[in-house]
């Protein structure tokens, strides 16, 4: 009995928390504690949300277009980060030659904040899809490489010795032992990379774009519409959560049985 | 050194290993007969692990060699299995897939793998957990999976490094009996390393006793008792005492 009651409370509490924040936020704005020109109330944001569903004004595009733009940029950059970062990291973890060649370059590029690439990216690719995909790639690829590398390095040495005594070749050990063993770390990296990519995306759009969620936020500032800023922020958050959940689902499917 | 009616399967000659100035293994010579169960005991820290690493070719020797069927041992050519002291089941493979691993590396035909899997799992009593993952079974079960995997590969030489070292005594007795059963079924050549004298005398056809570092073979004892052996049998006790005497370094 006690247990099911606890569980019920745990289920309700998060909703209560959100509701409380919304109510306090609404009151702060309604009572004029923070002037309406600086912060929009939740109700205003929701209203704008419905307006933006099918009105392109005043920023030039409906909400779906902004989301689609951001998603397209993020997914392109993110998948390129995975396609390049994971194999590179895994190979760096196992093959001495790859580590020797790639590690110094990687270590040199790693400390550069992805946002610092923005000016060059604009020079090279303009403010379109490619430029932003590049910035997202630059920020997503680092955690992919690091986690894959560490994942391979953390392979239980007994597993490797076991495979070796059966006569497995280096390549077989890499394929059959190191990669599956690194998977949980790799997926951890996917989540980190996702967060990094999403952050870089908004930063990139804040500076140079004509659609996208980051652009929506910038337009809110230019048009002095705090509700639009908040709406943009919320959409960035929500979309990020949805992608995170999808990555998590895929991960659970793929690493069944692996001890976490 | 081995029973007259058996051919030497494994020949170890002048095996020596040193790490820098530290001489760990000094000129070790012995043979293992085809299908023999050989136990190696020694005082703690006598370099048993180094010894096994050399035998399994995980480590190159400084001098000397290990030959299987007259050829220098090579994991890629010969069929060697190793059961480690620590759990070695791959967590992303089911029990069945784990047992199949050695055979997969050896690239046996799928049908052969299936047949051997069925036989081994039945022998080790793992048929019911074939599709469970290692984190769903107990650690003793995990060790049995490792042992099943080793035997299923039908190795020329099976090396065991205190596989039951971390299990409680009662379970150990049970698993030792099981081990003997599988060994009799598969007729595998086994080198079993342990620091448990009783276990050695219980399992072995022959016991090699190692000296302190630098390790050499100090003595060799035949254990010619009928199976299943009885820990209280005076003959058993006699042999155990002898081994204990030989192993004393204080």
TrEMBL record, chain A:
What keywords sit in the KW lines?
Cell membrane, Membrane, Transmembrane, Transmembrane helix, Transport
Tell me which Gene Ontology terms the entry assigns under biological process: transmembrane transport
Q: How does it sit in the membrane?
A: Multi-pass membrane protein
- Mind telling me which Gene3D superfamilies this protein's record contains? MetI-like
Any Pfam family from its record, for instance, is BPD_transp_1
List membrane-spanning regions.
Answer: 12-34, 75-97, 109-127, 133-152, 229-247
Q: Which SUPFAM superfamilies match?
A: MetI-like
Query: GO CC annotation: what is one?
Result: plasma membrane
Q: InterPro entries from the xrefs?
A: MetI-like, MetI-like_sf
Q: Does the keyword Phosphoprotein apply?
A: no
Name this protein carries in UniProt = NitT/TauT family transport system permease protein
Look up and give the organism this protein is from: Desulforamulus aeronauticus DSM 10349
Taxonomic path: Bacteria, Bacillati, Bacillota, Clostridia, Eubacteriales
From TrEMBL, chain B:
* Domain ABC transporter, first and last residues per copy: 10-237
Pfam families per the UniProt record, alphabetical: ABC_tran
Name the CDD domains on file: ABC_NrtD_SsuB_transporters
Return the InterPro entries for the record: AAA+_ATPase (IPR003593), ABC_transporter-like_ATP-bd (IPR003439), ABC_transporter_ATP-bind (IPR050166), P-loop_NTPase (IPR027417)
Alphabetical keyword list: ATP-binding, Nucleotide-binding, Transport
An example of a GO molecular function for this protein is: ATP binding
**PROSITE patterns noted in UniProt:** ABC_TRANSPORTER_2 (PS50893)
Name assigned to this protein: Sulfonate transport system ATP-binding protein
Q: What is the lineage of its organism?
A: Bacteria, Bacillati, Bacillota, Clostridia, Eubacteriales
């Amino acid at each position: 009995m006690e247990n099911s009651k606890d569980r019920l409370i745990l289920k309700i509490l998060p909703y209560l928390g959100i509701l409380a924040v919304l109510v306090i936020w609404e009151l702060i704005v309604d009572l004029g504690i923070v002037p309406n020109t600086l912060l929009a109330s939740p109700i205003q944001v929701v209203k704008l949300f419905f307006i933006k569903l099918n009105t392109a004004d005043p920023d030039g595009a409906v909400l779906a277009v902004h989301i689609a733009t951001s998603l397209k940029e993020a997914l392109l950059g993110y998948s390129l980060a995975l396609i390049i970062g994971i194999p590179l990291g895994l190979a760096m973890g196992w093959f001495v030659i790859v580590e020797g060649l790639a590690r110094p370059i990687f270590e040199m590029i790693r400390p550069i904040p992805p946002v610092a690439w923005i000016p060059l990216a604009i020079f090279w690719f303009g403010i379109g899809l490619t430029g932003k995909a590049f910035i997202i790639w630059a920020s997503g690829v680092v955690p992919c490489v690091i986690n894959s590398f560490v994942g391979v390095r953390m392979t239980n040495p007994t597993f490797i010795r076991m495979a070796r005594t059966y006569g497995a070749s280096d390549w077989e050990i890499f394929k059959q032992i190191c990669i599956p063993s690194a998977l949980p770390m790799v997926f951890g990296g996917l989540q980190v990379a996702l967060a990094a990519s999403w952050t870089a995306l908004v930063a990139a759009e804040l500076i140079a774009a004509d659609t996208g969620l980051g652009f929506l936020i910038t337009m809110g500032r230019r048009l002095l519409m705090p509700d639009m800023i908040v709406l943009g922020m919320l959409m960035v958050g929500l979309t990020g959560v949805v992608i995170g959940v999808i990555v998590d689902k895929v991960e659970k499917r793929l690493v069944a049985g692996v001890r976490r | 050194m081995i029973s007259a009616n058996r051919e030497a399967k494994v020949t170890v000659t002048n095996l020596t290993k040193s790490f820098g100035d530290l001489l760990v293994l000094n000129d070790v010579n012995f043979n293992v007969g085809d299908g023999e169960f050989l136990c190696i005991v020694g005082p703690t820290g006598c370099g048993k692990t180094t010894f096994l690493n050399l035998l399994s070719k995980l480590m190159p020797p400084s001098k000397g060699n290990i030959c299987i069927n007259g050829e220098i041992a090579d994991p890629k050519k010969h069929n060697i299995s190793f059961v480690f002291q620590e759990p070695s089941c791959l967590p992303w493979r089911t029990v069945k897939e784990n047992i199949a691993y050695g055979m997969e590396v050896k690239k046996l035909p799928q049908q052969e793998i299936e047949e051997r899997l069925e036989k081994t799992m039945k022998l080790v009593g793992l048929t019911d957990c074939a599709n469970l993952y290692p984190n769903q079974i107990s650690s003793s079960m995990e060790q049995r999976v490792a042992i099943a995997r080793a035997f299923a590969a039908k190795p020329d030489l099976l090396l065991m490094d205190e596989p039951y070292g971390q299990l409680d005594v009662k379970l150990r007795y049970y698993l030792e009996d099981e081990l003997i059963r599988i060994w009799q079924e598969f007729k595998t050549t086994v080198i079993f390393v342990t620091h448990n004298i009783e276990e050695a005398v219980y399992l072995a056809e022959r016991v090699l006793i190692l000296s302190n570092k630098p390790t050499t073979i100090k003595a060799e004892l035949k254990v010619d008792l009928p199976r299943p052996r009885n820990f209280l049998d005076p003959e058993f006790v006699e042999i155990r005492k002898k081994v204990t005497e030989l192993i004393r370094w204080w």
